[in-house]
Amino acid sequence: MTAADRAESTALLTDHYELTMLAGALRNGTAERRCVFELFARRLPNGRRYGVVAGIGRLLDAIEKFRFNDAEIHRLRDSGVVDEDTLGWLADYRFGGDILGYPEGELYFPGSPVLTVTSGFGEGVLLETLALSILNHDCAVASAAARMVSAANGRGLIEMGTRRTHEEAAVAAARCAYLAGFTATSNLEAGRRYGIPTAGTCAHAFTLLHDSEEDAFRAQVEALGVHTTLLVDTYDITKGIKTAVEVAGSELGAVRIDSGDLGVLARQARTQLDELGAPATRIVVSGDLDEYAIAALRAEPVDAYGVGTSLVTGSGAPTAGMVYKLVEVEGRPVAKRSSHKESRGGQKAALRRHKPTGTATEEVVYRLAGEQPERLDGDVELQIPLVRAGQRAGDLPTLEDGRERLRQALVSVPWEGLALSQGESAIRTSFLP
Amino acid sequence: MTAADRAESTALLTDHYELTMLAGALRNGTAERRCVFELFARRLPNGRRYGVVAGIGRLLDAIEKFRFNDAEIHRLRDSGVVDEDTLGWLADYRFGGDILGYPEGELYFPGSPVLTVTSGFGEGVLLETLALSILNHDCAVASAAARMVSAANGRGLIEMGTRRTHEEAAVAAARCAYLAGFTATSNLEAGRRYGIPTAGTCAHAFTLLHDSEEDAFRAQVEALGVHTTLLVDTYDITKGIKTAVEVAGSELGAVRIDSGDLGVLARQARTQLDELGAPATRIVVSGDLDEYAIAALRAEPVDAYGVGTSLVTGSGAPTAGMVYKLVEVEGRPVAKRSSHKESRGGQKAALRRHKPTGTATEEVVYRLAGEQPERLDGDVELQIPLVRAGQRAGDLPTLEDGRERLRQALVSVPWEGLALSQGESAIRTSFLP
Prior knowledge:
Two copies of one chain form a homodimer.
Chain A (H helix, E strand, L loop, with lengths): L2 H5 L8 H13 L5 E8 L9 E2 L3 H9 L5 H9 L5 H8 L6 E4 L5 E2 L6 E6 H5 L2 H25 L3 E4 L7 H14 L3 E2 L2 H7 L9 H6 L3 H12 L4 E3 L5 H12 L5 E4 L4 H14 L6 E5 L4 H6 L7 E4 L1 H4 L9 E8 L2 E2 L14 E7 L5 E8 L12 E2 L2 E5 L2 E2 L6 H14 L15 E4 L2
Parallel strand pairs in A: 6-7, 6-11, 8-9, 9-10, 10-11, 15-19
Antiparallel strand pairs in A: 1-5, 1-12, 2-4, 3-5, 3-17, 12-13, 14-15, 14-16, 17-18
Helix pairs in contact in A: 3-7, 4-5, 7-8, 8-9, 8-16, 11-12, 12-13
């Protein structure tokens, strides 16, 4: 293991109490009890009609790097978090259990068993915080992104929210947006890490830097070619568009408008571009767009949308509200009982029912040790093996596979489930006893 | 430079267009024009009355690691983002300019020049995305955290939101919470990276793992001592508290309640603990707390709060809405002019006016080349040197200094500025011509 690998340990990206629970369980011999943990959402946020599973690929990478190397052990010893016996156990820690889960791009609904971790208590409890961090963030962003893709109705979407969120969250957000069907991202690290197409040309600063807008456009066209996108709203938009076509000619790739009433301005720009003999020049709009604003622009001559803040903040729901609950110990179902937040004990699986037309009708969640659902035509089992005895399962879906899976899944949603307004889950979840 | 350092380059945590702007500017000789960029918020989110500056320390670290090493250059070449001349310039890139800014823990208001970057255009434009990512995230979390600290009115606050946000954003959020006055964090990496106290004991899973609650409490007390915090709401809370005191004795550190009507339950728990002869046992509550819920519990016998989701998501404002604008080129003020989002050109500084009692009255933002404010008793200049000619300024405030600065700054806010309700900025910002 190289220094770089060690530096990348994910083992301390976790809550203090996961380690103190381990210490307690090691002391009285319960740490090896066979446990099943389930990760799920009790409800969808804000009247959303579906959630999108995202982050599974990142989670599997993070689990492989979940190692207590010397640096982590020293830190835990110095800060007195756990005793020496526990430190010894941690130094040898490798997750050796099994993980089943929904593949990326699959939809989820309240109670869907998005992830099922089976292992000794200590092994599995240590992954709780990390699994929740990754899935709560990524599912929140992907779920918002999918609504924007629906609203854009086939037009291009460029993710440009990096500056509105934590610098590493931004990389993950770009991945979620691509999973959901965005065309490209502005984030260069996401391009490197995940092979996502990146895009971008110039900001207002580039125009302001120059002695005139014409100088700026000329510099950009010389550097990036006539197929570039010129930002035309630094001064007067009509003059900006005229200058843009004068400088780049009718081959100009696109103009971008980043302020004002985007619908009105897009219409004016389209008319002006056509009159200037640039009918193939596209119109890109940006500036505080969310799924509602995107939908509101459907009737306008907009060719692509740049989306920032609302994407990376989950458009009002910045976290997916998933929980990671112990549901089974040595084959015995367990559940918290003191409040309305009751959980259903026992390991569960799920299948989704579909009409012959392919429309989804129901999510059936059933206990492996309980009543089994009748199997009907159109049923799809939702969990797949992700990790077997600590090893990543073979042939896992790629990011591109997830993108295609979501595309198909959204086709299967009943039409009212794609409405942007607040409402019930697109399909109901049935829990078998 | 070691492999680990290289792996940590922050240079690709940026937007594609920062590099294409650089390429255009290099091509026509404008990349070296002396520029001033200003980072500020046009407004505070959601009727907030003040913002808290956070992330400066993280930003200075990130700028030091902003290097285009071989791996970054190869990636940019392979993906065709910029031309060879630009790659050559990037390979030698070191930020060599000056940065002034508000220190961490200082308050900011609409238009406050939180950061001022002076350098050649290329040098400064490259930092835009990274600076915004860090400050937009950290200021959003710290601003929410400060309201929670105010609401807690001296009682302890434990940050436990790691599982609700991106795994690296969580580490930064823990730092922001501590800056704002939280007592501790659950996040172990924040403990390692920033020296913040970490805390945590057990979750419901630990109780469920055991054959009885008593077994679980006994295991925890054996591992963590009688001064630990026992989570008493897995089954029946009254029985849980009884068992807790039976197992740990009257020296029990605390009980935690994580569900239900926390006010009612805290009162019942206090009465019961006193009757059981454990008057020194503290009561910790958690579960969907935000600043309003914390304030609502002020009259109850609560000793400490655990706060998660609302902290890491900025309690409704997950991003601070800061922008990074080019305001001056070769001594000439510049500003976008096409819309209502107008910026004020020219490099600016700011001072805060105070009454003789120490209460802040006004934020005065003035152009270095414009009218200078009259200097009055109680005026405090707000920017400090952070970077000089590319080198971090000496004697920069520490995280602890920021914590103390914020504590004092909140004392200086007019009383209505500390109200949790939506309203105007606590003090007005005056812009001198």
